[in-house]
């Protein structure tokens, strides 16, 4: 049996995610890979499923099918519009429900004969609409936790508990979020499955070779971070406040706050910003391999993939106690990095200083980080867990 699962990413339209990082839907299909979305695609394919990505788009006028170059998975785009405005939270939630193109979604799901839906984040109105759609099609609906952890409006609270009770499962790797969900939604089915990473592709270059290619001196201490430029969410203001040198802090990425970041880094010595949201994995691998430490100062996270890429390349990670990061860095077994309390600039600076001064500790943490990624976050490990979760739901559906 061809087992088809549709993955529906965040946003009223896919451009809500793509526009801030300067990508189009066609660049998404041709150039993008990795991240939680395509990590899930690869893991599901590994488990024998046929995943597809299904998203509304403000750039199409009719249903359009693209093919993801890296995995061969279909990307279905349906006409949609952004509901963003200045309405009250409850009115905004109603707008988001109405913006969900259920008729077009139904058309694609029936055409592809989907067996399951997998939605990014459950604390949003589109999830409620998709649970209702799944009910009408008799298709189980799952949702992942990628950082959306708060019901924002009164009207959502009236319906969210029922939606979560009807969902076939919530995939939550962050322990604090699992505890919150257990307290808020007693009928939730929760699975602890992390985001996956391709450990065969994400492996380090020889550090000296990487430094030579990037023009870095061998004795320069280098701290690095990469991803979307969202200053508040990613805590980039905190990181810049904590960084005093000596050495070089390298920021790689672009996004909606790029102009503000440009002002913040202007004139700063010891800070290099590479203003691009790149899909070139070799480029990122080279910077990770050339660096001494990876820093994630996020205020808000789900289960971020970027620190996993750093750990796979043998880097020790300094991370805040934001969702997901703590689960990576405080997992059972040998330490793989250093945690600091979220928004505590002094303790972040102290953690950077500690690893700057202790190369042996950096090597030990980086070695254990690579081992942890191989054991828990590999495509194969996540594929097995997702396959078991999806089949259990299908079995329940057949038995009912």
From TrEMBL:
Which CDD domains has this protein been placed in?
GT4_PimA-like (cd03801)
Q: Which InterPro entries match?
A: Glyco_trans_4-like_N
Q: Which SUPFAM superfamilies match?
A: UDP-Glycosyltransferase/glycogen phosphorylase
What positions does the domain Glycosyltransferase subfamily 4-like N-terminal occupy?
41-200
* Alphabetical keyword list: Glycosyltransferase, Transferase
One Pfam match: Glyco_trans_1_4
Q: Which domain of life is it from?
A: Bacteria
- The protein depicted here goes by the name Glycosyltransferase family 4 protein
Species: Sphingomonas arvum
Recall the taxonomic lineage recorded for the source organism.
Bacteria, Pseudomonadati, Pseudomonadota, Alphaproteobacteria, Sphingomonadales
